[in-house]
């Protein structure tokens, strides 16, 4: 029979095997455990942090990801319009914007891009998850922080976290995120890539089926695209019928491959109107920031590349040089 001390030692040894940094905090933000990866990444030694408050300047939310989803706080979300929750009684204190509180915690648990601060003073981009720890009765025990360098996010498969992106982001919100991400690229070197996406059938559908049909289709496509994004990526509406995806792929070739995958995801979107299934395709323009670029120039080149895909007959992917190729690939193969 394993005693409690041995069990705790085994748990600590297990956490030390992980490549990700893991910090266990109690309800007062005192460090309960700080694994070896956390020490290696941040320079903070475990012996100097145990039973002490977690460093207040450990990380800052990257500008492109807005504000931190604070656990237990009401996030700035639109009014919930999803399905009614039946079978359980939720009092007002258990609801956040009209939905159960644990939904807000799910939002907080999604990976976000941050700037981690090393003990020696320099910063580096990282992906951070912040999750609540509760006992079997739901009482809050503390928090776990899980983080890894952002350079390693290419190892995370697209869609690994489901629909990690915030959906139905307005154009002003998208523009604000783009400006923040561009600043991150200029100051910290975080890769900055843009995919400008239009659904080839959108304009025709708006004319023949009306605005409601077109908007319903665009929401389905947006959900489908979001399922294929990495945690660090952002999708937002642009104009009437278009989307922008902010990506951090390391190379233009990887960005182009990602664009082909998103085009394939669009083709698999199941949209029906009055019982008829309408086939959808996407035209995509791709651009990756290089030395000397400005945000306005990148936006223009991405839009021009998207238009080149449209002029090529739709269902094409074009990069900033103007080279256009038919969209390819089975979206289920990645």
Walk me through the structure.
This protein has 334 residues and is an alpha+beta fold. The protein has 2 domains: 20-155, Beta-Lactamase; 171-333, Reverse transcriptase/Diguanylate cyclase domain (Alpha-Beta Plaits, 2-Layer Sandwich). The protein has 9 helices and 16 strands. The strands form 4 sheets. Strands 2-1-8-7-6-3 form a 6-stranded antiparallel β-sheet. The chain has a 6-stranded mixed β-sheet with strand order 10-11-9-14-15-16, sandwiched between helices. It starts with a helix and ends in an 8-residue tail after the last strand. InterPro entries: Biofilm_reg_signaling, GGDEF_dom, Nucleotide_cyclase, PAS, PAS-like_dom_sf, Rev_trsase/Diguanyl_cyclase. Residues 7-52 form the PAS domain. This is Diguanylate cyclase (GGDEF)-like protein. Residues 190-322 form the GGDEF domain.
- Percent of residues in helices comes to 25-40%
Biggest pleated sheet: 6 strands, antiparallel
Q: In CATH terms, what is the architecture of the largest domain? A: 2-Layer Sandwich
Q: What form results from the Cα inertia axes?
A: elongated
Low-confidence stretches: 69-104, 160-166
**Count of separate DSSP helical elements:** 9
Number of strands: 16
- β-sheet strand percentage: 15-25%
Q: Which assembly state applies to the chains in this document?
A: single chain
Structural class: alpha+beta
Tell me the span between the first and last alpha carbons: 45 Å
Q: What's the CATH topology name of the largest domain? A: Alpha-Beta Plaits
**What string, H for helix and E for strand, traces the elements in order?**
HEEHHEEEHEEEHEHHEEHEEEHEE
Instruction: Give the domain tally.
Output: 2
Organism: Granulicella aggregans
Domain PAS: 7-52
Protein name: Diguanylate cyclase (GGDEF)-like protein
InterPro entries: Biofilm_reg_signaling, GGDEF_dom, Nucleotide_cyclase, PAS, PAS-like_dom_sf, Rev_trsase/Diguanyl_cyclase
């Amino acid at each position: 029979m394993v005693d409690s001390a041995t069990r705790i030692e085994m748990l600590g040894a297990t956490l030390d095997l992980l490549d990700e940094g893991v910090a266990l905090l109690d309800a007062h933000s005192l460090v309960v455990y700080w694994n070896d990866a956390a020490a290696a990444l941040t320079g903070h030694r475990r012996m100097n942090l145990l039973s002490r408050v977690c460093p207040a300047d450990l990380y800052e939310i990257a500008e492109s990801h807005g504000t931190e989803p604070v656990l237990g706080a009401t996030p700035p979300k639109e009014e919930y319009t999803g399905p009614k929750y039946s079978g359980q009684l939720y009092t007002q204190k258990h609801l956040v914007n009209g939905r159960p509180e644990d939904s807000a915690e799910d939002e907080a648990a999604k990976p976000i891009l941050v700037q981690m601060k090393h003990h020696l003073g320099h910063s580096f981009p990282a992906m951070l998850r912040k999750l609540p720890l509760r006992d079997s009765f739901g009482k809050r025990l503390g928090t776990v922080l899980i983080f890894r360098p952002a350079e390693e996010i290419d190892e995370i498969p697209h869609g690994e976290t489901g629909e990690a992106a915030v959906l139905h982001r307005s154009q002003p919100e998208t523009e604000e995120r783009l400006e923040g991400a561009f600043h991150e690229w200029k100051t910290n070197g975080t890769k900055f890539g843009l995919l400008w996406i239009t659904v080839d059938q959108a304009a025709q559908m708006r004319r023949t089926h009306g605005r409601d049909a077109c908007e319903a289709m665009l929401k389905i496509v947006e959900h489908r695209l979001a399922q294929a994004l990495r945690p660090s990526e952002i999708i937002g509406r642009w104009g009437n019928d278009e989307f922008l995806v902010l990506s951090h792929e390391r190379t233009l070739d990887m960005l182009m491959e990602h664009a082909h995958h998103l085009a394939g995801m669009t083709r698999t979107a199941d949209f029906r109107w009055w019982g008829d299934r309408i086939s959808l395709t996407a035209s995509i323009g791709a651009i990756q920031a290089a030395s000397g670029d400005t945000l306005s120039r990148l936006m223009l080149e991405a839009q021009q590349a998207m238009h080149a895909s449209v002029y090529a007959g739709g269902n094409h992917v074009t990069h900033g040089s103007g080279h256009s190729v038919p969209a390819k690939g089975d979206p289920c193969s990645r």
